[in-house]
Design goal:
Elements lengths: L1 H15 L2 H8 L1 E3 L1 E3 H4 L1 E13 L2 E5 L4 E6 L6 E2 L4 E5 L2 H36 L5 H34 L1 E3 L4 E6 L6 E2 L4 E6 L4 E7 L1 H9 L3 E5 L2 E14 L6 E7 L9 E13 L5 E3 L2 E8 L2 E6 L9 E2 L7 E3 L12 E3 L2
Parallel strand pairs: 1-22
Antiparallel strand pairs: 2-21, 3-12, 3-16, 4-11, 5-7, 5-10, 6-9, 7-8, 9-11, 12-15, 13-14, 13-16, 14-15, 16-20, 17-18, 18-19, 18-21
Helix pairs in contact: 4-5
């Protein structure tokens, strides 16, 4: 009976002995994930502000009293919309006087023409002297010149009357109202400030490193007051600021536009596919990840990786990365993936 028991024990030891070797042939058990499933986007940001390409102080062009201001700060106006009116009494009187003088000169010119025609007929009949004819021609020419000058004065007076009504030269947003009813203004006195609300740029200050990634990004947006506005890069100014060592990036709004003067941050994707920091391991002083290829773990170095930060990579999206068990791996280990 003892011999049977010893025999069974021996068989048990022999049977259990080779198992570890068989497991090693199959590979170390690890878990893995596709890069596409684990990857995150690396995002950069910089302070930015919305700038209007056209910002104009709308000023009075006459010396007059402000009769009314039709807009308030924050109002949106259309091109040609009335912004303010000036007291036009003196200018309307000047126009009326100029038009009256014009009518007088027209009448005198007609009379001078009749006299010239009569003098020419009499001269042909030798009933008028040459001096009389010359005098009639000179009078008519002088009146004609005076009438042309007076018509210019009438046109100027009409423009002054038109300037009594201050209108918007383009559609936009009123950002400041400095004029007040009853105030006496001079030509050049600002009444309101108008910005072209549809002609906007986003401007941000970026470092050289940020400038490089901003040029190649496929996605950028301006975020302010919990709103997100897609933007696209127009240019990065070559001239750098000596104090901050930054350059100005100018971007255009793709669809919806923020309010002129809004401040926020420009965000963009530095790298669309980056490996999370907790998947990185260090081997021989280098950071990287273990890539599973045909049952083997291959250490893939990431030269630009920084401890504790996600690392950008150009590995294909379907690359399989070691997750559980990665710390015990060495380059070339046979592995088997378990769920």
């Amino acid at each position: 009976m003892r011999q049977v028991r010893y025999g069974l024990l021996a068989l048990t030891l022999v049977a259990s002995g080779p198992l570890p070797a068989a497991d090693e042939e199959e590979g170390r058990p690890i878990s893995a994930t596709r890069l596409a499933d684990a990857a995150i986007q690396l995002e950069r940001s910089a302070p930015a502000e919305v700038e209007a390409l056209t910002r104009t102080a709308i000023a009075a062009r006459l010396a007059a009293e402000v009769e009314s201001i039709a807009v308030e700060t924050g109002d949106r106006v259309a091109a040609g919309e009335v912004l303010a009116r000036l007291d036009c009494t003196d200018f309307e009187d000047a126009l009326e006087q100029a038009e009256a003088t014009e009518e007088e000169l027209e009448a005198r010119l007609r009379l001078a023409g009749i006299r010239l025609d009569r003098t020419e007929r009499l001269r042909r009949e030798n009933a008028a002297s040459a001096d009389e004819l010359d005098e009639a021609e000179a009078e008519r020419s002088a009146l004609d010149a005076n009438l042309r000058a007076q018509r210019t004065r009438v046109a100027m007076a009409r423009r002054d009357v038109d300037r009594c009504t201050v209108t918007a030269p383009f559609a936009g947003l009123i950002t400041d109202r400095s004029g007040e009813r009853g105030a006496y203004v001079q030509p050049g006195t600002a009444l309101v400030e108008l910005v072209a609300a549809e002609e906007l740029e986003l401007r941000a200050r970026v470092t050289d490193r940020d400038a490089a990634s901003l040029r190649t990004t496929g996605e950028a947006s301006f975020r302010a007051d919990s709103e997100r506005y897609p933007v696209s890069l127009l240019t990065i100014v070559d001239d750098a600021d000596g104090a901050s060592r930054t350059r100005e990036a100018r971007l255009a709004f793709e669809d919806q536009k923020a309010v002129p003067g809004s401040a926020g941050r420009l965000h963009w994707t530095e790298h669309a596919r980056s490996i999370p920091a907790d998947l990185l391991v260090r081997r021989d002083g280098a950071l990287g990840v273990f890539v599973i290829d045909d049952g083997e773990a291959r250490f893939h170095k990431l030269p630009d990786a920084i401890e504790g930060r996600p690392a950008a990579t150009d590995l294909p999206a379907d690359t399989r990365l070691a997750v559980e068990g990665r710390y015990g791996l060495t380059d070339g280990d046979r592995v088997r993936i378990v769920e």
